[in-house]
Amino acid sequence: QVRLAESGGGWVQAGGSLRLSCRASISIFSISSLAWYRQAPGKQRELVANIGSTTAYADSVKGRFTISRDYANNTVYLQMNSLKPEDTAVYFCNVRFNRIDFWGQGTQVTVSS
Fold first, then answer.
1. Residues whose CB falls within 8 Å of the CB of residue 48, separated by 6 or more in sequence, listed in order
2. Within 13 Å and on the Cβ side, how many CA atoms surround 81?
3. pLDDT digits (tens, 9 = 90+) for 80-91
4. pLDDT at position 61, please?
């Protein structure tokens, strides 16, 4: 079983920045794809950013968010800059390992206007 520990969420004013972290219980060398999702109240969970053989972002965050990984610490990051109120959501780390999806507990990000 893969365990994911998320941190870095919080409150920030519009235009501010936050960095989310997700540390995995296994080596991320074994994981071909890592991703961040988010879910706002009343909305479906959506893919925000993915990193594998390529890096991809939702159109709504392109140019503002950056996904990266630290192999030594088995951690994936999401750097979020120029935050907007519409970025407010619970953010979830996701990995696929042995054809099974594993999810973190989620971390709340609130952006005030």
1. 35, 36, 37, 38, 57, 58, 61, 65, 78, 91
2. 7
3. 999 999 999 999
4. 98
Report the sign of the C-alpha dihedral through residues 65, 68, 73, 75, in that order. positive
Question: Which residue is associated with the tokens 């972002």?
Answer: 57
Q: What is the pLDDT of residues 40-80, one digit of tens each?
A: 999 999 999 999 989 999 999 999 999 999 999 999 999 99
Q: DSSP string covering 48-107, please?
A: EEEESSSEEE-TTTTTTEEEEEETTTTEEEEEE-S--GGG-EEEEEEEEETTEEEE---E
DSSP, collapsed to helix, strand or coil, labels residue 1 as coil
If you search the block for the tokens 């893919």, which residue do you land on? 47
